[in-house]
Amino acid sequence: MRFVMMYKPARPETALFSPQQMAKLGQMCAEMAQAGVMLNSEGLQPSAKGARVRLSNGKVTVTDGPFAEAKELIAGINVIQANSKAEAIELAKRFIDVAGDGETEIRQVYEPSDFNL
To answer: What is the pTM of this model?
Structure first.
């Protein structure tokens, strides 16, 4: 099963990781990739460089960042391979222990077999 982990840090989104923390994250991601559980890992630039596109009642609106609700901002995503939700949770615990205070949302990715294709 594939899962997406979305990391929402407790720190301001403009606060970058220290070189030591980046090294620890890099080492952990490399170990997870070598073990076959980390399929992809990406950090996201601040919301000030982004936009939100919304469709409501047939009308499209675009809102440029930065966005006010900092607690909902996603700082990075990881795509992982796990045998179960419980295993994905354990991998997320390992990741957040290195990434720092905040939360990581875990969502399972649909597979073609989920649609009887």
So the answer is: 0.87
